[in-house]
Amino acid sequence: MGRTERLTRSGFLLRIFLLAVSTFLVAIVGLVVGPVNISIAEFFDAIFVASNNSTLYQIIFEIRLPRVLYGIAVGGGLSIAGAVFQAILMNPLAEPYILGISSGGAFGAILSFLVGVTFLGTQLLSFIGAFCVMILVFYLSKRFGELEPNIMLLSGVMVGAFFSAAILLMMSLLNDSLRTAVFWLIGNLSLADKSSVGYVLFISVGVSIILILLSDKFNVLSLGANHAKQLGINANKLKSLTYLLTSIMIGALVSVSGIIGFVGLLVPHICRMLFGVDNRIVFPASFFIGASYLTFADTISRTVIAPAEVPVGAITALIGAPIFIYLLKTKFKSIS
Questions:
Q1: Residue 279: enclosing H or E segment and its boundaries?
Q2: pLDDT tens by residue, 155-184
Q3: What distance in Å separates the CA atoms of residue 221 and residue 32, rounded to the nearest whole number?
Q4: Residues facing residue 159 across a β-bridge
């Protein structure tokens, strides 16, 4: 078990404030660092002085700001989704993609590349694919009218494996779109359309707020379904609601970013190591740390071999895998 300590209101607010400030600072770094580096003086000049048609303004607000906002939405959403699924399934290795939702989204995206539609069509087909898998896994997981975590886990893995095989089959039929498809499967924010950033950010933040408000119930759920029932919490209703909400959010995120690994798996464990196992702080901390992590990784991805880009999913895996292995070997008992 992880370390526990009494969470006071002042302690909670202080930690959330510091995490929010850290995310804001990382976002500023993401705006000024890139193939064209911008000094702090130039940054403020672009905000308060430069015209909308200036080069600096265009770089900051038309190119980098949407990427930063996507990094916050996708990174924060995937991280809090990972924390929720680890709580629902009571499995420290659970992560947002383990239930096959990402495979459904990727299937829709690859299908769009195969038939040749606009990016808006890709987003729509990706979301539909993720939504269909979500509904399928949800109903396969029902046993005697209740969600069974083990059945949900196995159903998600099997459905995901089926769609992964279908993806490989479709990729063998691609030609000019193959590189785009590979970037999608690795995870990449450069394909995201800035016109979609508003609804993606709204869904990510909105669902995250709801999950944070339910976080105290997950503390009780960790004691067992029978104990939760005795305390007046309907475990089946809680699991169903959070699964559906979280899955909708993941579908929206995958539809613009592809499959970005080692965010939803790693970040919740880091939060438990830093703040303890209380979900009231783990959930919001996961959002802010995940947002900072992906925004930072995306900044690296577009600068390390500039003017070319590395898929951000490759960066998160290169950073996240060694860290997770270290946690697995040295801290696992304290974060599981």
A1: helix 279-301
A2: 999 999 999 999 989 888 887 778 778 888
A3: 44
A4: none
Q: Rounded CA gap, 253 and 241, in Å? A: 19
Cβ pair 121, 66 in contact under 8 A:
no
The encoded tokens of residue 203 equal 């869904």
At residue 275, φ and ψ (nearest 5 deg) are -120, -5
Angle among Cα 248, 105, 83 to the nearest 5 degrees reads 50
CB 239 within 8 A of CB 194: no
What is the model's pLDDT at position 1? 42
The two tokens of residue 88 are 């629902």
Q: Which residues contact 187 (CB under 8 A, 6 or more apart)?
A: 257, 258, 259, 260, 261, 311, 312, 313, 314, 316
Grouping H, G, I as helix, E, B as strand and the rest as coil, residue 143 is: strand
Tokens of 217: 């119930």
pLDDT bucket at 336, cuts 50 / 70 / 90: very low
- Does CATH place domain 9-98+172-335 in 1.10.3470.10? yes
Per-residue confidence band for 3, with pLDDT thresholds at 50, 70 and 90: low
321's tokens? 């895998």
